[in-house]
Structures are given as structure tokens and as C-alpha cells.
What does this fold into?
Amino acid sequence: QVQLVQSGAEVKEPGASVKVSCKASGYSFSDYYVHWVRQAPGQGLEWMGWINPKSGDTDYAKNFQGRFTMTRDTSISTAYMELTSLTSDDMALYYCTRGSGLTSMKQPNNYWGQGTLVTVSS
Amino acid sequence: DIQMTQSPSSLSASVGDRVTITCRAGQGINNYLAWYQQKPGQAPKLLIYAASTLQSGVPSRFSGSGSGTDFTLTINYLQPEDVSTYYCQQYERAPRTFGRGTKVEIK
It folds into this structure.
């Protein structure tokens, strides 16, 4: 069955960087876009961007251009997101989620990781 | 960016009631509209996609309708386990914008 397993919670100081991993299993990792979604405490869902695991191409939401980077390692079916220059506004749950197939019709985000809590505190 | 306007932001209904949540897109999205359910402490779960297609395993009391820019999620015979926050999302183009969510509670 399709699974996305994310790395554990992180505590970072302001100004630091954080890198979260998302390991996929149960399907061909390179054949589906991986998206990242953020949820601040008590708030709604905010789409951050997607990565094409086959080509490495990315698309970032405007709010996340500059400090946010998505990468992948196809040899271990894992996607990564890195956020730099952390502030208290970046405290949130970060989810990876599977999107459309590279060659299929548009698909919703039907598989989600368990979320990774990033805490920013001095 | 396509703005998604979801209403109401919260509602309280009795067990067995019919509940309706609406979502309006800022422009046409070719019915690439999904509804998600999120329970506290859990990741979102896909309920409906393509505006009206029920995801496998989702109870049939959930239904979606609409086209163009106006969409609706209906829960027939509200159950205690339906207490959640519900989000609409357009996936016609990036950024895949979400509505701000509707928190559903039991009276």
C-alpha cells in the first residue's frame, strides 16, 4: 500500500535551517509529483510547492520562494524539503503528499505523510 | 493564484442532520475540486475529488456537487465521528489553493 513516512519532529533556533524527509513506498516514486503543505498551529492548510521526482523540476508558491527548497533522492525514494532562516512564523506541521502522476490526468492529494512538527524557539 | 472562498467557517449541527459546506473558486477550475476531512492530530484525508467522485472507502453519506466555480460538500445524517475540519482545494493549477476550512461540531 502507498505510504509516505516523514522524519521526526525538529526543534530549531531562530535563523537556523531545517530539512524534513519524506520516504515513499508502495508505488513508483519517480512517477508521481510530491507536494509539500504547511499547517501553522490552529490554522488551515497552505500549499508550498511540488517536485517532479523524475526530473527534479520544482514549482514553489510565491510565499515560499527564496527560503524553501525541495529536493529528492530517487535511489531511496525520498523527497526532502529545506527551510532556511527560520522564524517563529515557520512553526508548523509540514506534510508531504502525493499529487498527480507525471503522465496521468490531474489528481488530488490522496496520500499524505504523518506530518513533521517544526518548532522554532531560542 | 485561484482564490478559494469556503463557508461557513464553522457550524454546529445535531446528529442525523444534513450539513452543507460551500466553496467558490475565483475562476473556473474544470471541476478539479477536492474535499478533505481533517481530524485533530491527523493528516487530511481525501473525501471527494473531481467535484463529485467519492474516494474509495468514504461513507456514502458524504457527497459533492457543483460545477464551474461553485461547489458543495453535503453530509447526510451527520454522525459523531464526522466532527472534523473540512477543506476544499482546487487542483486545476499550481498553486493548489485551499479554502480556509469549516469546523463541524455536534450540538
